Amino acid sequence: MSVFSHSRIDTYETCPKKYEFTYVLKLPRGPSGIEAFMGSRVHEALEWLYGAVRACRLPDEEDVVARYRSAWDAEWSDAVQVVRADRTVDDYRAIGEKAVRDYYRRYHPFDQGVTVGLELKIGLRLDDDHEVLGYVDRLVKVTDGVWEIHDYKTGASLLTQAKADADRQLALYELAVREMYPDAREVSLVWHYLAFDHEVRSHRAPQQLADLREQVLASIRHIEAQTSFPTKTSSLCDWCDHKAICPAWSHLASIEALPVDERPTEPLVALVDRYADVTARLATLEAEKSDLCDAIVAAADAGGLEQVFGTTSSAKVFRFDGTSVPGKDDAGRAEVEAILREDGLWERFASLSPVALAKALDAGDIPAATATRLAAHVTRRSGSRLYLRTRK
Ligand code: SF4
């Protein structure tokens, strides 16, 4: 039985290489970032609050905040990483405390339904071989047949309604809750964006849930079929446990470990610097070439000439005046395609995209039978390319 979680699938989608480090190679995770540390303390404080409410006690606001503070102090380690240079440990501690206070004031006296589970482990069998596990922050029964799945978020960005309506995690939990409690006729998905004192709600139609089940199973099968895991760099790399050994970043880590004055002579640094220098000079030469072309054409036009001569070369001027058709992403492209289709001319002017087809074949995004038939007509190529970017 393969056991996946929303976060495992999400990790693959965020970066296949991170997925490989975490779930294939099972490398130990590094110390947590302070955002995750703060989020855990807030979750614990709210779990404690609702645990007390279930035991028919109603802690006051200061009790819950004291719980948050004491858990922070007990769990704190200097290994917790603060990535953002514009925030301090005290900033995060204060953000978490404010989130707890805002939540307390908004929902006091916490009588919006009966809490059935806290940090509730749930499982969803997708087929005989695949299961999804997850933890619901709080499961609530509002009235008979009416349930709510609550999720606490402490991050610094707020979920839009459109993203909530397309969210996979809580919808997966809904599938599991509906199996656990077949009386559920209405299930609300509820996110608490604690840093914003904001609640987002969403609902799923039965067909959406059925589609989701199929999509998740297809995603898991796709992930299981992978044998190579490319890097996918993004701003999230700064929070990645494996950045120091990631092939996209390990060179940077190694040169940052060198004394500053030795870095320019490190062999790879020197090569990249030369490559950047040549690329910059080529760009200057291309601009100069374009200016010279314009000057020659202007002079040839003025003299009524079609060909002009240097000492060892000649330059022939080609003039063109023809139709321009909108490119793939240009305005009007869809209308042009529609007209050609309607008039039966599409096949004549549409062409195969070798790049798109090769990508689909490499990603396994082609029916197996088709891929087998194509195999005799395609070849494998390997090589390298360099993309030069200016370092921040
Ligand atoms: S550092 Fe970035 S690219 Fe590398 S594994 Fe982590 S998320 Fe992926």
Describe it.
- The structure is a single chain.
- It contains 14 helices and 8 strands.
- By secondary structure, the chain is an alpha/beta fold.
- It folds into 2 domains: 2-224, Lambda Exonuclease, Chain A, CATH 3.90.320; 323-379, no CATH class.
- The strands form 2 sheets. Strands 1, 2, 3, 4, 5 and 6 form a 6-stranded mixed beta sheet that branches.
- The longest helix is centred in the C-terminal third of the chain and has 37 residues, at 267-303.
- The protein is extended.
- The model has no long low-confidence stretch (mean pLDDT 94).
- The structure holds iron/sulfur cluster (SF4).
- Iron/sulfur cluster is lined by residues 15, 17-18, 21, 231-233, 236-237, 240, 242-243, 246, 248-249.
Structure summarized in a few sentences:
The protein has 392 residues and is of the alpha/beta class.
Just name the CATH architecture of the largest domain.
Alpha-Beta Complex
Span of the ends, CA to CA = 45 Å
Instruction: Name the poorly predicted regions.
Output: none
Shape verdict: extended
Most strands sheet: 6 strands, mixed
Question: Helix/strand/pairing class, anyone?
Answer: alpha/beta
Write down the domain tally: 2
Number of strands: 8
Element order: H for helix, E for strand: EHHHHHEEEHHEEHHHEEHHHH
Helix content: 40-55%
Strand content: 5-15%
Supply the CATH class of the largest domain. Answer: Alpha Beta
How many separate helices? 14
Average residue-wise pLDDT: 94
| Fold-level CATH name of the largest domain | Lambda Exonuclease, Chain A
Rg estimate, integer Å: 30 Å
List the ligand species. iron/sulfur cluster
